[in-house]
């Protein structure tokens, strides 16, 4: 089966710049033949996005605040008016106050907990509901998660809880929307050098540790994540739903660092 997105139209939400995971996905999907629309939040991100969108032949850009119903309504109304339907949506939106990611999880404030869960998890549920109405012939919904959802990861704190909720939401949405022919999956890359990742304390050490210990001894590339997204949105992924697809070089299978990276090297004595 040839993996192609020819004739498919999709919405990409969350491109911050050319190093964004969302951009790696968008580029791969465009190269596979998809026609794309984009959302952004705020004028600064819009200016960064314009030349990227133009490079893949898109002039459909809309400013969206996922915490505002009117803003969300306007975005999906625009898609409905211009295209009439959607084939896929990529949700790459998450946020937490970085000041609360560097300390203890027990110090998470109520306000930041609610904001983190609303933006990082509920927004995907809200997007799914709106997108499903534009998928009469079925479609694909994709979101992004991280290993901190399943294992305690330094400096991730409430974002780990938010991603755990997002992974659970992915499974429940897959069950709800499956009868409509809509597949829902999450991609879980290892740490990557992105704008969002750089905001997390200890990001460089996390990136280096993963690179040195993953079975493949390297972190995932944007191209690898993009290729996975293309597969999931294509007809080749027709019966993959409710999954958390890990693109982390196998790091998630490890119980300990590689022998050469243990504090006390393993010897026969």
What report would you give on this structure?
With 269 residues, the protein is an alpha/beta fold. It has one domain: Rossmann fold, CATH 3.40.50. Helices cover 40% and strands 13% of the residues. It contains eight helices and seven strands. It has helices spanning 21-31, 43-55, 69-82, 110-132, 158-177, 195-198, 203-213, 222-233; strands at residues 9-13, 35-40, 61-63, 88-91, 139-144, 182-189, 244-247. The protein has a seven-stranded parallel beta sheet, with helices on both faces. Helix 2 (43-55) links the parallel strand 2 (35-40) and strand 3. The longest helix is centred in the middle third of the chain and has 23 residues, at 110-132. The chain is globular. The termini are far apart. The relative contact order is 0.14. The mean pLDDT is 90. This is Enoyl-[acyl-carrier-protein] reductase [NADH].
Helices, strands, pairings?
Blueprint: E1 9-13, H1 21-31, E2 35-40, H2 43-55, E3 61-63, H3 69-82, E4 88-91, H4 110-132, E5 139-144, H5 158-177, E6 182-189, H6 195-198, H7 203-213, H8 222-233, E7 244-247
